[in-house]
């Protein structure tokens, strides 16, 4: 069947028709057994051939440039092998349709290079079996969080006005985008499950099945966020106690009915006992008790429960410096290692707080060796510019995935999967900011290979989004994207202290916005210094949650990396950082530098006007003006705040209000 064409006015993101020219202009043979995913591959190639003059057929014998060879629909095997003789065709061989589909998209990344020279056999397989995207989409428009919680690209592509959108073409085009970067699972509703969303599990499961049908065509399994209180909310039971026999029976029967209509259903995502969501604590049970109940219901069908580890006290007394939100996930879950079922995955945010522009890697990831873990990243830019600012996160994510919590094993090898909070909505550019598409693509590629060079991944995205682009455009896109994360860090919260954002919507600066709130997000700035003492010797003890190789580093301000020093230490403004500057001068310098870097990026983008499609260029140019305005506001508020606290003037005599 032919691939989907996005609805009129929807940007094709990194798969414009020209990206298929290397395939569509050649003779292709598809060999082996068929199946839905093989039919998808055939449709993709056939559409490309119709555009660019090539041919595609089934079977063998004829002279050809490309052979796509599949043995059958062998389970969930996603691997493929690429080989090319110097005087023969390029061949992609897979044991099943998923592998063949991945092989097809790999050929697109290689472009013309896939048909040149000699390729020794290369076996490609994903390093992580689970590569998932979580949508925080509400079915109804929430009075506070709107249609998509922390969504910055318009409304949901799945739901509108309390019902399913019934736009299969759009969903199928989206599935294609996800498959193109290696994502193989998606959750279609918010982890904060409200009354309407709860019913997706039962009487509205048909709406989920319609979405699953579109994702299935590209090898993506559909998951559903559920409320732990479903037996009460939906089943009329008096309890949701995970050890209650009637509750367990209810979940078993509800799950069976889900698989009756979605045979390849992936499983459940659960946020429990966190930020007001119900959970097992109400019954004196543990997180393992709650997760294992759902795992037992899913196990007969091959499903998985994703139990989120984002659990902390959000009613904290700001006067109490012994309570530390950063400690919470470790304190809750490390003692439960080995108690979770084999089909339960603990979903852990990459840092201990909440997707800040700079955090240490969560010690939870290294503390549960007998528990399956997935690392959660936030592709939607809640605290990194909300898709109004250019902030390519590939370098940050790569640093997390390469970090060695035990001094030896990278995080990317400790996890079973990578989960991203989606940045997609019904905006014509999918991600609101056209350049935010690079974050979604990069997430998928790092989930496939956590050790990949993120800058090389950025090269791929640029080449696929702008096939045949002149060198000036390629270098210009690199200039505005690579390094944008560090620029954002410079003009926002300094030295790992985090937050300093407007309460509620989290956009723009408010240095004391959460300082006296119950949320546990403090910087403790006073006239003498700033930062949180998280040492074992005199502070909250958080530093001691790490293996000794890092606990010792973080315990001392002399050895703690500058970029995290205020996360672990309360320091005087005159404290000399390892980089040679004082804390206060570093704050001043980086905030001025950050604004200068955004100004330079804006000017670089302006110089690309004649090389980029006009409406896309105009959209990005407009957003750059907002980014520059916001960066100046961050600079002036943060610098003025700390000048007034410290009384220390800028060494360079620049204007601070």
TrEMBL record:
Locate the Glycosyl hydrolase family 67 catalytic domain: which residues? 123-430
InterPro entries annotated for this entry?
A-glucoronidase_C_sf (IPR037054), GH (IPR017853), Glyco_hydro_67_C (IPR011099), Glyco_hydro_67_cat (IPR011100), Hex-like_dom2 (IPR029018)
Enumerate the UniProt keywords alphabetically: Hydrolase
Any Pfam family from its record, for instance, is Glyco_hydro_67C
Q: Where is the Glycosyl hydrolase family 67 C-terminal domain?
A: 431-654
Question: What is the protein named?
Answer: Alpha-glucuronidase
Species: Streptomyces flavalbus
Q: What is the lineage of its organism?
A: Bacteria, Bacillati, Actinomycetota, Actinomycetes, Kitasatosporales
């Amino acid at each position: 069947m032919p691939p989907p064409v996005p609805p009129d006015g929807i940007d094709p993101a990194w798969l414009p028709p020209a990206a298929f020219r290397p395939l569509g202009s050649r003779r292709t043979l598809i060999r082996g057994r068929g199946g839905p995913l093989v039919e998808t591959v055939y449709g993709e190639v056939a559409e490309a051939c119709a555009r660019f003059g090539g041919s595609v057929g089934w079977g063998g014998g004829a002279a050809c440039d490309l052979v796509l060879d599949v043995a059958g629909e062998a389970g969930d095997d996603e691997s493929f092998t690429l080989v090319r003789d110097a005087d023969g065709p390029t061949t992609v061989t897979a044991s099943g349709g998923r592998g063949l589909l991945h092989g097809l998209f790999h050929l697109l990344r290689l472009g013309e290079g896939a048909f040149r020279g000699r390729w020794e056999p290369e076996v490609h397989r994903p390093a992580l079996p689970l590569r998932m995207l979580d949508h925080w989409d509400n079915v109804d428009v929430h009075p506070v969080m709107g249609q998509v919680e922390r969504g910055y690209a318009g409304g949901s592509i799945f739901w509108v006005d309390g019902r399913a959108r019934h736009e299969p073409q759009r969903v199928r085009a989206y599935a294609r985008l996800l498959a193109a970067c290696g994502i193989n699972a998606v959750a279609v509703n918010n982890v904060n499950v409200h009354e309407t969303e709860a019913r997706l599990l039962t009487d509205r499961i048909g709406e989920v099945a319609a979405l699953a049908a579109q994702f299935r065509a590209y090898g993506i399994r559909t998951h559903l966020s559920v409320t732990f209180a479903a037996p009460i909310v939906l089943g009329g039971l008096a309890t949701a106690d995970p050890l209650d026999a009637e509750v367990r029976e209810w979940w078993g029967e509800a799950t069976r009915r889900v698989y009756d209509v979605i045979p390849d259903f992936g499983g459940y995502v659960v946020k429990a006992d966190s930020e007001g969501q119900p959970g097992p604590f109400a019954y004196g049970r543990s997180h393992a008790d709650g997760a294992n109940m759902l795992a037992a219901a899913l196990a007969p069908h091959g499903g998985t429960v994703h139990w989120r580890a984002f659990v902390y006290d959000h009613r904290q007394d700001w006067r109490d410096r012994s309570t530390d939100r950063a400690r919470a996930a470790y304190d809750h879950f490390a003692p439960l290692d080995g108690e979770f079922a084999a089909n339960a995955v603990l979903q852990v945010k990459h840092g201990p707080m909440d997707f800040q522009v700079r955090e240490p890697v969560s010690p939870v990831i290294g503390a549960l060796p007998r528990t399956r873990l997935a690392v959660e990243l936030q592709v939607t830019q809640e605290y990194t510019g909300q898709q109004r600012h250019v902030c390519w996160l590939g370098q940050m994510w790569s640093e997390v995935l390469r970090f060695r919590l035990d001094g030896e094993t990278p995080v990317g090898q400790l996890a079973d999967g990578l989960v991203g909070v989606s940045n997609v909505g019904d905006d014509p550019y999918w991600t609101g900011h056209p350049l935010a598409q690079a974050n979604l693509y990069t997430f998928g590629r790092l989930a496939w290979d956590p050790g990949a060079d993120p800058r090389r991944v950025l090269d791929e995205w640029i080449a696929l989004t702008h096939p045949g682009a002149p060198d000036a455009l390629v270098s210009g896109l690199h200039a505005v994207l690579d390094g944008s994360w560090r620029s954002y860090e410079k003009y926002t919260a300094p030295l790992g202290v985090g937050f300093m954002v407007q309460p509620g919507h989290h956009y723009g600066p408010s240095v004391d916005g959460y300082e006296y709130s119950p949320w546990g997000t403090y910087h403790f700035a006073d006239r003498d210094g700033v930062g949180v003492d998280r040492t074992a010797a005199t502070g909250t003890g958080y530093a001691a949650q790490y293996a000794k190789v890092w606990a010792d580093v973080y315990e001392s301000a002399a050895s703690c990396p500058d970029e995290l020093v205020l996360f672990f230490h309360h320091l005087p403004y005159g404290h000399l950082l390892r980089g040679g500057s004082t804390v206060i001068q570093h704050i001043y310098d980086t905030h001025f530098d950050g604004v200068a870097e955004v100004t330079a990026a804006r000017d670089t983008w302006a110089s690309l006007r004649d090389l980029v499609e006009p409406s896309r260029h105009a959209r990005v140019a407009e957003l750059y003006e907002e980014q520059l305005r916001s960066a100046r506001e961050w600079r002036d508020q943060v610098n003025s705040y700390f000048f007034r606290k410290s009384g220390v003037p800028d060494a360079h005599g620049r204007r601070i209000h």
